[in-house]
Design a protein that fits this description.
The structure is a single chain. By secondary structure, the chain is an alpha/beta fold. It has one domain: Aldolase class I (TIM Barrel). The chain is built from eleven helices and twelve strands. Strands 1, 2, 3, 4, 5, 6, 7, 8, 9 and 12 form a ten-stranded parallel β-sheet that branches. A two-stranded antiparallel sheet has the order 10-11. It is globular.
């Protein structure tokens, strides 16, 4: 595949699945070397962005996402709770900042942003309060309208998370209550409102490599590319339809991370859910392949996470450090073009 590293450094929006598969099929050492070379053109090779994700409303979701313990359709041991009050959210955000996080993400188990004005106002109040701490604010609230997106932006939301999850072809095997196009339309509303996009997917749900390449293909077609791309390793929660799916081969995860770095050169690639099942060596290899962001803390919405002490120890062993807050990233991004 004769192409220069400098050429790969420029974002492309015309990647095809076959091209991405060619990268994923390369000998691993060549693939990782290419990904790391692209990475160094845009990011320091010794920095990792620390983010914290808090579930501000847990359980009772009407969707049927096969991986999700928060669906009301599944018999899962879950500590459900209604929307937290602003003081409780701000307290957690302050703790996250003290532990080194520069981005604070708030997630609510809804199919879409609530139509009840009082509940939406509570979310906006929480956004304003967290933003006043000097943190980047990210929210993930399900589908939303353009008008709701504008209000979130005005309140201080920097990024909206809305994952595509997998390829368009495999998607119907995982979710039937929301279409792929629904997700793309929400991303369009986010862009039009001037927020940045956090959008990625989940690997290890029983999909094949072609599906993982298909997810990356869809992400590259977004204009501009998502500023952050979470790559989640499925956490197989008892009671969900995917509880018995065989675990993904570890090297396949590394290949996915490396391919994401190559085709999304300026995005932060976030090693997200499933890190409690990864060895330190596997996480280090993912960083080498281009991942440069993680979620800290001991919970990731409802599933376990390694915790701040374990993450700090890992970064010390690797000679890496938390990335500083980037205030220049808070500008508007309103260019929109979807496939």
């Amino acid at each position: 595949m004769p192409v220069s590293i400098e050429a790969l450094a420029q974002p492309r929006h015309d990647w095809t699945r076959d091209e991405i598969l060619q990268w994923m099929d390369l000998p691993l050492m060549r693939l990782v070397w290419t990904a790391q070379s692209v990475h160094r053109l845009h990011f320091p090779d010794d920095e990792v962005q620390l983010c914290t994700l808090l579930s501000i409303k847990t359980g009772g979701c009407s969707e049927d996402c096969a991986y999700c313990p928060q669906s009301a359709r599944y018999d899962v041991a879950l500590d459900s709770h209604p929307l937290l009050d602003t003081q409780a959210i701000v307290s957690e955000a302050q703790k996250a900042k003290e532990r080194g996080s520069t981005r604070f993400c708030m997630g609510a188990a809804w199919r879409s942003v609530p139509e009840r004005e009082s509940e939406f106002e509570r979310i906006l109040d929480a956004v304003r309060a967290v933003r006043s701490l000097g943190l980047e604010v990210c929210v993930t609230l399900g589908m939303l309208t353009y008008e709701q997106a504008v209000r979130l932006k005005e309140a201080g939301v920097h990024a909206y998370n809305h994952n595509l999850d997998t390829s368009p072809e495999f998607y119907p095997q995982i979710i039937t209550t929301r279409t792929y196009q629904d997700r793309l339309e929400t991303l369009q509303h986010v862009r039009r409102a001037g927020m940045t996009v956090c959008c990625g997917g989940i690997v290890g749900m029983g999909e094949c490599r072609d599906d993982r390449a298909g997810l990356l293909e869809e992400l590259t077609h977004l204009r501009p590319h998502p500023e952050s791309v979470p790559i989640n390793l499925l956490v197989r929660v008892p009671g969900t339809p995917l509880e018995n799916v065989p675990p993904l081969d570890e090297i396949e995860l590394v290949r996915t991370i490396a391919a994401a770095r190559i085709v999304l050169p300026t995005s932060r690639v976030r090693l997200s859910a499933g890190r409690t099942e990864m060895s330190d060596s596997l996480q280090a290899l993912c960083f080498l392949a281009g991942a440069n962001s993680i979620f800290t803390g001991d919970r990731l919405l409802t599933t376990p996470n390694p915790g701040d002490d374990a993450d700090a120890a890992l970064l010390r062993r690797l000679g890496m450090k938390p990335a500083a807050a980037d205030e220049t990233s808070l500008g508007d991004r309103s260019e929109v073009s979807l496939p």
